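The protein record minuted underneath.
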Amino acid sequence: MKSIGFIGLGTMGEPMAANLLRKGYSVIVYNRSPGKAGQLIELGADEAASPLEVAKRVDVVITMISNDQAIEEVYFGSAGILKELKPGTLIIDCSTISPTLAKRIGTEVSERFSDFIDAPVTGSKPAAIDGTLMFMAGGNEQLIKDHQDIFLTMGKEVIHMGASGSGANAKIAHNTIVGINAAGLIEGMAIAAKSGIDASAFLRVVKSGGAASKQADLKGQKIIEHDFSVQFSLALMLKDLKLSSALTDSLGVSTPMLESAKSLFQLGQAAGHGESDLAALALIYENWIGTKIGEPVVPELTEKQSDDRRKKIRLPLNISIMMSIYQWEGDGGFSGQSVQGYLRNLSEDGIQIESEFPLEKDMFVVIHFLQESQLPPMTGRIIRIERNNGSFKYGCMLTGLPLYQRIQLQEYIISQS
């Protein structure tokens, strides 16, 4: 039985190494951050002081590292694996990294008369614990078959994807789908919650219908219970979507859904949820809809209660704006004028602006912010009108506003509050 070195003892790496130990493999471990090896040492692992020491003492080195920068350090650093790699060593990288870096490592390993397999996994922490991961492997097919015993100790299947780097390509394509699915699940649950539908009942429908997915199985209940303990972090999901964006740019593939999902997870990261599970993206949607997705359903509010609630959630503001107002003329043309106003309130469903100029319900206006805001003009529809001591307050629903502009608006409003 071959000796194994395992480098990277995070959310996935620690249970993967534990499964190797339980099956009787001799395992030497290393983690860049100290203090992660305690439970593995209790299971019989030995701890090394550097990646180089690991590589010197074993037949097979497995790495499970969070990102390209960390991989660079582990492989190419002053005490990295490749510093003095002995011929005949097998290197298996299970990280999700850029295909370019995976190919580079493969070339460097080959030049040292050793073998390399890029074999990222699908399956989050529960699958790593249960030993039911699936490996998508790039490299020599016979080499992969010869080492199936190692892969199947940590997972249920290993699938050959092609030449070196193909495993990394497959993982990035796979995680693009994961990110889009997760965002779609959360968005659908937000729609249901805002509609007054019980979240648990709706999740049962999702799992039983055409919207069923692994993300619904893994994340649905976590979203309802606000359990954002990490199976797969939001920051890592964003990292993978960024890798996918770079890959698809190089391939010339148009990916509008990828870019939308990436923007959403960037918003989650900016809100401080990066170290939580990716299901924490639900917190962004909850902020937008003004309610918790798993909140018990309450009777519908009366019109007065709804108005009172809306007023409570508004944030008072005093931001100067200009509005362009267009009116149709009898001959089929139109005339326009600009009037001054103020952005007074931000609510879950739009904004409130104040002006002395009288407008009518359902009119459309173009809102211009100060140049310093760097915000583009935004079109809004007047949905409410209140008189206020000689002026008018208009509830305004913004229309056709892309996600990135909504984020820009929120950031500007926060900076002015």
